[in-house]
Amino acid sequence: WIHGGPMAYDRPRFDFNASYWTTRGYVVCNVNYRGSTSYGRAFCETLKGAWNTVEVEDLLAGVDALEARGWADPDRLFVGGFSQGGVNTAYVLTRTDRFRAGVAEHGVYDMRSSFGTDDCHRWFEHDFGLPWENPEAYEQASSITDVDAIDTPLLLTAGENDWRCPPTQSEQLYRSLRKRGIDAKLVVYPEEHHNIGDPDRAIHRLETIDEWLARYDPERDVEDEDEEA
Known about the structure:
The protein is of the alpha/beta class. It has a domain at 77-228: Alpha/Beta hydrolase fold, catalytic domain (Rossmann fold), CATH 3.40.50.1820. It has helices spanning 16-23, 41-44, 54-68, 84-95, 111-114, 121-128, 135-140, 167-179, 199-216, 222-228, and strands at 78-82, 101-105, 154-159, 184-189. A four-stranded parallel sheet has the order 1-2-3-4, with helices on both faces. The radius of gyration is 17 Å and the shape is globular.
């Protein structure tokens, strides 16, 4: 599960989401990829103006390490994340089809169309310059550019009132995947911003993700689970 930010980090503490997924039979891998905080300024600034580069390498290296230790089943791999974690999930899926399914939550997938429509445009301008001044960087940072390379089923979620990662971003990627015949699902939570604050919606989010993973997990029998529930 990929952390947001990217100027953030996964720290050794109790994590409710990780705890939930372990009860469902999964090992949870959190990678503090280059661009994360807590490893010094130079490490954090690695991704400045260069998204969709070394962070993807680090994330995939984490999966390789788990497989090498026998902690991860290569036939039961999933990837997901929220905010920048959703952004990075889409990046990862443009590079590999080793995952059974993905979950990209509240992300940005077309940096050019998001410019000026969210509350991050000054940050993007600082890191990348203006879209018409540095189009190559914006194109590289936009997973929509390589949507033809995504062959993995993808669940997308968004908040109706999210000003950081507008729901139209998820709609673009969802529609593009469906045009290509890729199994995709879009869930937009009404009245929610860049989080899921309502308890009932938070429960729905977990159940929706769990159902999505179970659908593609060869070791889980969805019909049996429904009967037990």
